From TrEMBL:
It comes from Dethiobacter alkaliphilus AHT 1. It comes from the Bacteria. GO terms for biological process: proteolysis. The chain crosses the membrane at residues 51-74. InterPro entries: Peptidase_S1_PA, Peptidase_S1_PA_chymotrypsin, Peptidase_S1C. This is Peptidase S1 and S6 chymotrypsin/Hap. PANTHER family: SERINE PROTEASE FAMILY S1C HTRA-RELATED, SERINE PROTEASE HTRA2, MITOCHONDRIAL.
Amino acid sequence: MKKEQEFWKVKAKGKTGQDLDEELIRELNNKYAQDDEPAKNRGLGQKVFKLLVILTVLAYLALALNQLLAVYTLPSLDFVHRSRELVQDQQMQQLREAVVEISVGNSGGTGFNVEQDGRIITNYHVVDNAGLITVRFPQGPPYAGTVSAVFPQVDLAIIEIEGQDLPVIETDPKAQPGPGDEVTVIGNPLWYSHIVAKGEVAGETTLTGWETPVLRVKAPIHRGSSGSPVIDSSGKAVAVIFATSTQSAGDEIIGLAVPVHHIYE
């Protein structure tokens, strides 16, 4: 382009110079000068496009890496294999039948039935501000649930469903589990359904803002375990899992459970 601009700016010699229209020359010079601008703009646009492509690729790589890390940071799934062994016991099979999956929109938790016509105990935070609640037993059709009572101060709630001759778990409001007592926890951790796990009571603790102590339970408690029954050696529910403790003992998971007597007070 520069050579062409220089050509038009060369002063013609001799008679040829008289025949040339200097105004036309100026117009041509201006035209070529203007033609350079779109080329420059196209070059800038291509650089911007390449930059956007690079940023998009980096974003996808970051997302993929995050998902990969999430897979590798999942807790051990040994509890799934252990559950398959435990459910061979007839009592465990019967207790498991009364534990339900609770679905609330895109989230959910666990609960357990205590009345044959359908009375589910779960956590308040599982059903807080819930619209449609779906309750599923291991066997049979799903049920529509309605929250009939809440105890937000101890994170408990009751869901009513319209059922008949449903499997139940008995509760023991007078039970006082102590450190070292063996317990069974049945729930739906990490999107696995009706997992049976063995654990033991590690004692009691009082949470900030809570007036009454809660149980500390050593067991594989994970997301989705909220509302799981803590069952003693007699086969009765004595507490309800609602969280895990931040004060972990090594690699052990410490679950926090509310004694069931709060529902009957």
